[in-house]
What does this fold into?
Amino acid sequence: MTTQSDAAALQNAIVTLDAAITTLQSGPVSSFASNLQNTVSAIALVASLGAALIGDVETAPQPPATTASPLTGTLFSSLVPVTSDPLTITVTLGGIAYTFSETSGTNLGTFTNQYFSHNVIKCTVTGCPIQLYIKHDLTGNSRAEVVSEYAYPFATWTTGAPDIGTFTVMIQQDGKALQTITAPHHWMYARWRWQSSPRSIIMTPAALVAKGLLFPIGPVTGIPAGVSYGWDPTNTSYQNPMDMAGLTGAMPMTGGRNDIGPITDVSAACIYSFTTANLLAVLCEAEACGSIPVHWRDLTTNAPVYMYANPLFTDAGPATLPLNTAQNPTGWNLDNSHFPNACWLAWLLTQDSYYLEEMQFHMVYWYSQPNYFAGLMGTGHIAMYQGQQRDIALGVGLLYQISYAMQQTTSLPSSMLPMSQYTKFRADDVSYQTTTYVNSTLPAYALFDGNQPNGQNTAPFECDYLLMREAQAVMLGFSERQPMLEFRARQILSMTNPSVWKIAYCTGYSFDFSVATSWAQEWTIYNATNPAAAITTVDYLATRYAALAYIACVPGAHQSQAKSQLPAIESLYISTGQPIDVKWSMVAA
It folds into this structure.
């Protein structure tokens, strides 16, 4: 705790420093070396006392390293001094040089939060398929970034090459070259950015957990930490535009992949152990999200596609678009059931507007699925895509992460969607979910939380994903999701309750609720058809354990029961002798 003596010590140190600087400036040349040493010592003392005082006031511990220094081995590995003067960018493509001038661009407005403010200038050049968005910080130290998008506005559905091929970008200021970047690819509907310096870390994972913005991840007694398949930490790098930084391009590939779930393994590892290497991996993964070809802007607004203004928008564009096909040069085959949530932690750590905008684009992709509006239009309202529960989970997660992030802003440029879209979407979805599921008398919903459109079956591991997203929305302060959380908590609480269900059988792939009218009857049916379906793999048990731990952290009617039932599931997991993927290594509050 800070005391008066602490503050007095700092004040005395500042007086000493002031005297040392005066002596250094006015003293004789012969004493310069010793006076300099005295000044350096005084500076160190002020820094030490000030850091201790600040650390006592701040609830957040300081990170092991901040992004105020170069991030080695990445596209943003160089710190480039800039001023507020306008930039000139030359893009060389197909042997033709196109010059973009910030002074001739269109000002789309200002982004502002409590940490920084920057403008957004859109620049285009006739004949060049690339659009640039130039941003200068308006407060604090000079910082600039240039976002490159190869994205014909969706309203024209103009076709073009899925990849423009090798290109070079030279960034200049005041007639001097700041940096030149050459890359072999630029996918259509993808983007990347150059930064003069990365955004600083504003809060550590530990502080974010303490504020209720992240769920606690850490060692679980008796269960060694592991990682899901496919994660090579050495491959989580972002060195060139269109790099994937370890994200899986073949998204429909199923299984316990490292980059799917409420957070990625990379993000979980950073929460579990906040090291410079883990921080770097999180930022690289978030930058690589720009490589995913889902960046569709509205021709009339410059913002990502606004679903209420374009209710029939889908991603079923011309066949040449590099979407949802394995036969394209981008390396991406998209699927909203297995889409990575790779920007959330990066935004929490930095509040970088680029990551918020990226999440907006991800949600555009999510609601662009051709069958999204089936059965939901006609009332003027839109609700979550009612496909698989993991589909719904992605939508719930993005909607409330975006909404929380936008609550932290005070102004937005027109290149980003307004809060009003997400407010309306939340209200529409809560209304639909309440009527269709929470208040339903259909046994599959009223008793079992079937939560599938056919009202007959459920996949427990998908329910776990959705339950974790509902818990996160409530943790972020959106009490409107509390009824959905309580509704969806019933299934996991029943299937991990030994008096209702044999918990060794709580994680089957799918359950049919079309016949049973009680949990006892459902157990009889399930046991008769799946006599050997006890835990044979820890994949589903891990998600069930994590989901139970998630809701044990969130206040509500479910919380005490979740806490009481968690030890039995933990013991069941320990009995398998298997490690648990770090993203499921939950430490319940």
